[in-house]
Specification:
Layout: E1 27-35, E2 41-50, E3 55-59, H1 66-73, E4 81-86, E5 101-104, H2 116-126, H3 131-144, H4 160-172, E6 178-182, H5 190-207, E7 210-214, H6 218-224, E8 227-232, E9 237-243, H7 252-255, H8 258-275
The chain binds adenosine-5'-triphosphate and magnesium ion.
Length: about 280
């Protein structure tokens, strides 16, 4: 990946739209499929366009290919057939201005011997960012996730939720345009998860991030997403797509609404259908 530079000004999203029609899609998955070396068909050919500014969530039973699809999008693995485009170009252009991405894994994967600020600084060091630019960028990313008072702490002195905040700060410090998250809050209690979800949606909105998010939580998917892709397994494929038609940025009021409950009910039914051995790949 090319150098990631911090320091672009933050600006508020000026209107209530989430996906920008005038910008190229962040990612296009063009009949991309994945057969692993041992012959496992991880993904059947997938066609998917991820618009600029979307909050797209992948949900589905274990083994349906969510992580595989995310890794294809991150270019961590290559499709066996088909191809992907990033901002209408090949992966070689990723890393340039307006085309940066960051990945957040389920485990925070922090360096245990390094303090919070050093953990957050790591991607900038790897990218050879000038010293003078690092300190303000690190401080800002730590502040964004509400950990300014803990910048000099070690990971062992933090709770699970705080460690995950550090992991998010480390992703934000690179000022990404596309944020890829694989079950980032899966190991946390529901209260902490809800708080982090609220923080994440605020960050997504303020930074105009395009986000691809993997979860097993129906509530989390409905709360966060502009669009939800339900996947089914054997082979991994898109089963159905749900658009969450609710203004952004969302707050706790949405969680308490009848609309939220209705979306969750429908998504729960679809997930049950996608989990049946006989699930068909037909999209709705
Ligand atoms: N490196 C690999 N080699 C062989 N098979 C693999 C490999 N990685 C994943 N698979 C298989 O591909 C399928 C999809 O796996 P993937 O990890 O993408 O599922 P997932 O939807 O992320 O599941 P989970 O919800 O459990 O994380 C599974 O059948 C899995 O066993
Ligand atoms: Mg997975």
């Amino acid at each position: 990946m090319k150098a990631l530079m911090p320091g672009e000004p933050l600006s508020e999203n000026p209107d209530q739209t989430t996906a920008s029609a005038d910008k190229p899609p962040a990612v296009e998955v063009l009949s991309a499929e994945k057969v692993f070396a041992n012959g496992t068909r991880g993904l059947a050919p997938i066609d998917l366009t991820i618009a600029d500014g979307e909050f797209l969530t992948l949900i589905g039973p274990s083994g349906c290919g969510k992580s595989t699809l995310l890794k294809l999008i991150a270019n961590l693995i290559e499709p066996s057939d088909g191809r992907l485009l990033w901002w209408r170009g090949e992966f070689g252009k990723v890393g340039q201005d307006g085309r940066r991405f960051a990945f957040v894994f389920q485990e925070p994967t922090l360096m245990p011997w390094a303090r919070v600020d050093a953990n957050v600084r790591l991607p900038l060091e790897l990218a050879d960012v000038a010293n003078a630019k690092m300190a303000p960028a690190v401080a800002e990313a730590i502040e964004r996730v509400g950990l300014s008072k803990f910048a000099r702490h070690f990971p062992r002195q933090l709770s699970g939720g705080m460690k995950m905040r550090v992991s998010i700060a480390r992703a934000l410090v690179t000022n990404p345009n596309l944020l890829l998250m694989d079950e980032p809050f899966g190991a946390l209690d529901e209260f902490t998860r809800n708080n982090l979800d609220a923080d994440l949606i605020r960050l997504w909105w303020e930074r105009k991030l395009t986000t691809v998010f993997v979860t097993h939580s129906i509530y989390e998917a409905v709360f966060l997403s502009t669009r939800i892709i339900v996947m089914a397994a054997n082979p991994g494929r898109i089963f159905r797509t749900m658009t969450i038609d609710e203004p952004q940025p969302r707050d706790e009021g949405f969680r308490d609404s009848a609309k939220f409950a209705a979306y969750c009910r429908e998504l729960s039914t679809w997930l049950a259908e996608a989990s049946l051995p006989t699930a068909s790949g037909a999209a709705s």
